[in-house]
Amino acid sequence: MFKRWREEHADDGASTPPEDAKRLKLRFVGQVQGVGFRWTSSMVAKRLGLTGWVRNNPDGSVSAEIQGEPSHVGAYFSQMLEEYRHHPISYVIAEREDIPVDPGERRFEVRY
User: Fold this and answer.
1) Cys bridge to 9: 15, 17, 77, 78, which one at CB 3.0-4.6 A?
2) Residue 57 is a catalytic residue
3) Residues near 55 by Cβ (< 8 Å), separated by ≥ 6?
4) What's the rounded mean pLDDT across residues 35-42?
């Protein structure tokens, strides 16, 4: 399912969000800086065809917004756990909030 969606939307990243799109605002705390967390988050999001962003915060946490089909947004969390299965890090989701979809967003990016 994820592979087909990516192939259909891989041309220029300019697809519009699906009609049932979901957007989450997240804040991760714990061992999330200096361990490739932003890069991993970006890789997982892009693999799932999600849009949004991820960035480090001055307080040592990481913030992100992820958007896409509800099943893909849900899969983001299990795939993040899978990515860190062999090299576990300690983190929790300190904030998780449903927010309005950004209809103009077309890509997932790491912000600095």
Assistant:
1) 15
2) no
3) 38, 62, 63, 64, 110, 111, 112
4) 97
